[in-house]
Amino acid sequence: MATVLPPPSKRQKVAQAEKAREQQEIQSIPSGLGSVRVQFFDQATGDATGPAVSVPVVDANIKNLETLLNTLQGNDDDDRVPYRFTYQSDKEGQTIDILADLYHSLLQPGIKTTEDTVSLYYTPQAVFRVKAVSRCAASIAGHGEAILATSFSPVSSSTMVSGSGDSTARVWDCDTGTPLHTLKGHTSWVLAVAYSPNGAMIATGSMDNSVRLWDAKKGQALGGPMKGHTKWITSLAWEPYHVQETGRPRLASASKDSTVRVWDVVSKRIDTVLTGHKGSVTCVRWGGTGQIYTASHDKTIKIWNPKDGTLIQTLTAHAHRVNHLALSTDFALRTAYHDHTGKVPESDSEKVTAARKRFEQAATVNNKIVERLVSASDDFTMYLWDPSSSNKPVARLLGHQKEVNHVTFSPDMAYIASAGFDNHVKLWNGRDGKFITTLRGHVGAVYQCCFSADSRMLVSSSKDTTLKVWDVRTGKLAMDLPGHRDEVFAVDWSPDGQKVGSGGKDKAIRIWRN
Amino acid sequence: MPQNEYIERWQKQHGKRLDHDERTRKRQARESHKQSHDAQNLRGLRAKLYQQKRHKEKIQMKKRIKEQEEKNVKSSAPDEPSKTPLPQYLLDRSQATNAKALSSAIKDKRNEKAAKFAVPLPKVKGISEEEMFKVVNTGKKTHKKSWKRMITKPTFVGNDFTRRPVKYERFIRPMGLRYKKANVTHPELGVTVQLPILSVKKNPQNPLYTQLGVLTKGTIVEVNVSELGLVTTSGKVVWGKWAQITNVPENDGCVNAVLLV
Lengths: 514, 261
Hints:
A: 5-stranded mixed beta sheet, 5 helices, B: alpha+beta, 3-stranded mixed beta sheet, about 15% strand, nucleus (chain B), Ribosomal_Se8/biogenesis_NSA2 (chain B), NSA2_fam (chain B), rRNA processing (chain B)
């Protein structure tokens, strides 16, 4: 006696319908559209690469375009470079990313027809790929108070330093999830931590108005406190590796007392004092061309020459205090000669050459070294600057509805991400400052954000106790990382992309990995 | 010249009495004695009025003393702007920390498991059914069986409630005694916010009263805390939280509650 299957329930029917609908949406390119002529342009220089090529529409997907471009450039099979293609229309100046293929991005919306020649701008992407962090590898207790700053070593993702409200900084072994060293000495909160570009030293700035230096390997103090500031330290910046005098690295510290002091790290003396700001200096950056950029509560950004401590330029446009600065070359400067291959040059001169090469590679646009600067402010806007060419901003980045706290350039300079107190992270085009998308998802103020080394991911930390990993290209949430038990003040993605370290008010460091 | 300023006029014409200053000084000096005498000896309505007046005066006095004290404080620059460590970018910002403190306080408390079942008012006085319900006997049939009841206490009635036909309506919850909002105090912070009530979770008197949404002292209600901006560990906004009613709403005309954290 055969039992008859009961008819499907409503839930099953709905699920089936849903599945059918989703499956239908798998996009196929209709055949018989013929071919389209494609002209490639280099995004960095704006020059055309090769002649216009006729490509069948059916085959015009990213993968094939990449192969075609690699062939046009004569790259060998082993050093093929992945590219990102964008289409820039001439009239409205809008930029469209080619997500999967030409048909769905350009032809189907009617932006271009098969009759036209499509000009595609390409940018090389990182040859390596960073996986999105997805789980908490370790939650390490140790700090007695909230964690205020974190930073990975530029050498590898295995060590990280964190500064805390318990007036210590701690160095962590991220592979095993254990503490390595406790850097004791400060008498108040440690507000800023920074690894030197060669990864040998750690500088910490504190609420007790002093800066201290530590040996990153041994965890010992290098000399006593460097005193001079009269208010707390807000930000630290090391001199880029290729600009340093051999054996005499320098460090810039910004303070609430509205000065920036440049320290000679070896003799522990003040090299120069940059005075001129009228309010607390919130952020300091040392550019690869040897200039120091500072942002302040007095609404200005100043550019200094650290050799003689003279002011080069003052950028005024903001209507309220400037919170944060980011350089387009930040990533290259931070990692100096440490690249994704993990090979370290042997001699010092080779290291400097490698660091300089990496910087120049990152900064060259149209065969000129251009260091762009983006500044975030309390007036809800950001400005994109090109200080070498003009003291007028390139673009004003409008869109945030509350104070913008943090801004960062992607390592490939294509994107700017900004984190605001309006719960949103916004993505902007790194070249012209055009708005790309808003990353919605946080339910509290977003404090910091950090790009992965390949610029394909972004991690943001928020007051709502979570970290969120975003896919930069699609603007979607890639991974939600709850786990912290209170607001997350600091987040950093290791320069090799393996790990994310975060710390916050719950006093525990968390290491995240894929 | 206004009609009633005859004293001033007299003083302008003839000067003050020679012993005027001394008299005023003495009157002032005896002021406290008089006040004390009045406070001890007045009876009845006069005493009540006198106490009211005195109460108001005292409030003003205390305020003024406090102002004075604050003015006199020699302020030295605080070495740390706040007690809790904050990152550089949050220093120099005036923060609305209330909701934040709420959130962390709640989390801390959660850790203590025992606190889960403790409520601020563990015991309440029982309310008899006679006191709670009034028998409605309008109409002959209703009168004969006396099955209809009117609730004499404040109630919470949900938004989607529609009354049943008269014939079937056993319990009447009077419109005038319905409440939608509660003044909810956070016990640790001492901030009070008016929040919409979402539902009645538990009336300690009787499960039936829970069902009917009766608001008496000690009742646990769920309130909408979304505007406080609390977040869960997974980063979602907390929407409803429980609170216990601390007053007798029918006496006060409002619902006061304390948040359970």
